[in-house]
Design brief:
The chain has 250 residues and is of the alpha/beta class. It contains eleven helices and eight strands. Bound molecules: 2-phosphoglycolic acid (PGA). The site of 2-phosphoglycolic acid has 13 residues, from β8.
C-alpha cells in the first residue's frame, strides 16, 4: 500500500527571524519529498517562513478565527491566512481547548472557516490522562469527532488531516506506544469512514521524536506526525521527515 506521510512542525509560541534563517539554511531542499512537510509557525512569522523555506515545504497557521471580519482583537481570519497563501491550519489543539476554552462548537466553526477559505484543517483531538485512566478514551474521541465533523463537511474539496494527540503525551516525553496509538487511529478511521469514502490521513502527536518516529510511523493507521518540541531542532525534524521518506520508498 502506498501510504503518503504528513510530517508537520508545530512551533507553538517559539521562533524569531534569526531562528527562521538558521532553521531553513540547515534544512535544505536536497531531501527527497514524496511525502508532505508542513511547518506551522506563529502567525507573525508565516510570511518569513513562506519566503525562506524551500518550496516543497507547506505552511500552516496554528489557529484561525471563527469570524470573518470585524471587532475581534487579536484574531486572524481565514481570508487573511489565505491572502498569505497559508495551506494548512491547526484547529482545536488541546492547548487552545485548555487555555482559551475552545469548545467543540467553536472548533466546528473554525473548521468551516478554513474550508470556506481553501485552507486544509488539521483537526486535533485527544484524551486527558484522567480520561485514559478512567477508560474513556474512545468515548472522548468519538464525541470530539462527531460534534465537529459530518459527511457534508467532509464532502468538501479539502484535504483534512486529523491529529490524534493524547494530552498526557504532549510535551511530557511520554509517548503512546505504537500499538496504543494505532488502536485509537484505527478507531478514528472507522468513525470517519462512516462519514466519507475519502481517505482522511490521521497523524500522531505527543512527544514524537527521531528516536520513536520509525516505530510509530510504521503502524498501519498512522499517517504522519504533528511534532512540537522536536520540530524546533531543524536537523531532528528533517531526520523524522527522512524516516517517513525511507518507510514510504521502501
Ligand atoms: P510535542 O507537541 O511534540 O512537544 O509533544 C506536539 C503538539 O502539541 O502538537
Amino acid at each position: 500500500m502506498d501510504k503518503k506521510y504528513y510530517i508537520a512542525a508545530n512551533w507553538k509560541m517559539n521562533a524569531s527571524l534569526s531562528f527562521i534563517d538558521d532553521y531553513f539554511s540547515s534544512l535544505d531542499s536536497n531531501s527527497e519529498n514524496s511525502n508532505e512537510m508542513i511547518v506551522c509557525p506563529p502567525d507573525i512569522y508565516l510570511q518569513s517562513v513562506i519566503k525562506t523555506a524551500p518550496k516543497f515545504i507547506k505552511t500552516g497557521a496554528q489557529n484561525i478565527s471563527s469570524h470573518d471580519v470585524g471587532a475581534y482583537t487579536g484574531e486572524c481570519s481565514g481570508e487573511m491566512l489565505a491572502d498569505h497563501f497559508v495551506q494548512y491550519v491547526i484547529i482545536g489543539h488541546s492547548e487552545r481547548r485548555q487555555y482559551h476554552q475552545e469548545s467543540n462548537e467553536e472548533i466546528k466553526l473554525k473548521i468551516m472557516k478554513a474550508i470556506e477559505n481553501g485552507i486544509n484543517p488539521i483537526l486535533c483531538i485527544g484524551e486527558s490522562k484522567k480520561e485514559r485512566e478512567l477508560d474513556q478514551t474512545f468515548d472522548v474521541i468519538n464525541n470530539q469527532i462527531r460534534s465537529v465533523l459530518d459527511s457534508d463537511l467532509l464532502s468538501k474539496d479539502i484535504n483534512m488531516l486529523i491529529a490524534y494527540e493524547p494530552i498526557w503525551a504532549i510535551g511530557t516525553g511520554l509517548t503512546a506506544t505504537p500499538d496504543m496509538a494505532n488502536d485509537v487511529h484505527s478507531f478514528i478511521h472507522s468513525i470517519v469512514s462512516e462519514m466519507t469514502s475519502k481517505s482522511i490521513p490521521i497523524i500522531y502527536g505527543g512527544s514524537m521524536k527521531e528516536s520513536n518516529a520509525k516505530e510509530l510511523l510504521e503502524m498501519e493507521h498512522i499517517h504522519g506526525g504533528l511534532i512540537g518540541g522536536a520540530s524546533l531542532d531543524a536537523s531532528e525534524f528533517l531526520n523524522i521527515y527522512n524516516i517517513a521518506e525511507e518507510i514510504r520508498n521502501g
